[in-house]
Specification:
Layout: H1 18-23, E1 28-29, E2 34-39, E3 44-50, E4 55-58, H2 64-78, E5 82-86, H3 92-95, E6 105-109, H4 110-118, H5 123-135, E7 146-148, E8 151-155, E9 160-165, E10 174-178, E11 183-185, H6 207-219, E12 224-226, H7 236-257, H8 262-267, H9 281-302
Parallel strand pairs: 4-5, 5-6, 6-7, 11-12
Antiparallel strand pairs: 1-2, 2-3, 3-4, 8-9, 9-10, 10-11
Bound molecules: zinc ion.
Residues 44, 91, 93-94, 188, 228-229 line the site of zinc ion.
Length: 303
């Protein structure tokens, strides 16, 4: 059996393995106060934090049917009602199930809420929205009621929930840090195996800010990281991801300095990749093009 969980810490009572992660039908407890549900369809996570009076859910996947199932299961297992819902960023695979938490305090950065309101989605977001609006007549996008800039904190009896806006992946991208349990939920500021390539194709993203965001996450010295996608990981992965993003930036800066064009970019195959990921060509293509425009714009401003 392949051990997917790279953290080997005494306070982690339940470990993910390839088997239970892919076929998990129940919630998995990660630390004393944090549970995770692995959403197979998006290789992503819904995370749950147990507070004194109720539960805090982080992200909701792409479908209210999934988040409803996870909410019911968590309430049953932990024995507390859902009280809060935090949206890390506006992308469909994190925010489209959020209506299930309409009776809770829904929290997001102001920027995330504005992008949701503007329906400023990627191609996959637009397609999913169309599908959901057709299939589920009561589907709606939520408007978070608690909006913050920079940071928002919830102080519970023995637990501090620090929600920090770091931007980078998208404008408004936020992480959730629980210092007492040395755990950080990163949204898509971090991805992990098997989704080793972070997506930097969002029109509101900022690749240079992303590097700073990764450095800020490292400064928190987390022992456990629940990434936006892929296996639960640890601080070592931050450095790997930073290196990869830097490699992409350096490659693209050089490509633009050598007067490379967008057409040439399509056919070039020495673009840095951690490994070839099947069925992710459009994901890489959109990321690459966006990076091209972003760096080109930056260079024009510098001139
Ligand atoms: Zn995502």
């Amino acid at each position: 059996m392949i051990q997917l969980f790279v953290c080997d810490l005494p306070h982690i009572k339940y470990k993910y393995t390839a088997e239970n992660i892919l076929f998990m039908t129940a919630l998995t407890q990660i630390t004393d106060s944090v549970w995770g549900y692995y959403v197979e369809e998006i290789i992503g996570h819904i995370s749950i934090i147990k507070l004194k009076e109720g539960l805090l859910f982080i992200d909701s996947s792409f479908n209210p049917k999934i988040s409803a199932k996870v909410r019911a299961k968590a309430e049953e297992i932990v024995g507390l009602p859902a009280n809060y819902h935090v949206i890390t960023h506006h992308h469909f695979d994190h925010a489209f199930g959020s209506q299930v938490f309409s009776d809770c305090e829904i929290i997001s950065s102001k920027a995330t809420s504005e992008l949701l309101k503007k329906r400023d989605f990627t191609i996959w977001g637009k397609n999913t929205l169309e599908m959901l609006e057709k299939e589920q007549p009561d589907f709606k996008l939520v408007s978070p009621a608690i909006l913050f800039e920079n940071e928002y904190r919830i102080q519970d009896d023995n637990l501090t929930i620090c929600i920090k806006q770091l931007d980078g992946h998208t404008l408004g991208s936020s992480i959730i840090h629980v210092p007492e349990e040395k755990i950080v939920v990163t949204g898509d500021l971090m991805c992990s195996v098997p989704i080793v390539l972070p997506f930097y194709g969002d029109s509101s993203g900022d690749i240079y800010q992303w590097i700073k965001a990764l450095e800020e996450i490292a400064l928190l010295s987390p022992e456990i990281i629940i990434p936006g996608h892929g296996e639960i990981t640890n601080i070592k992965r931050i450095e790997e991801q930073k290196k990869h993003v830097m490699k992409c930036i350096n490659w693209m800066e050089e490509f633009i300095e050598n007067k490379g064009t967008l057409n040439e970019l399509e056919s070039i195959d020495d673009y840095p990749q951690v490994e070839k990921v099947p069925d992710m060509e459009s994901f890489v293509k959109i990321s690459k093009e966006r990076l091209y425009y972003e760096i080109k714009r930056k260079k024009e401003i510098e001139i």
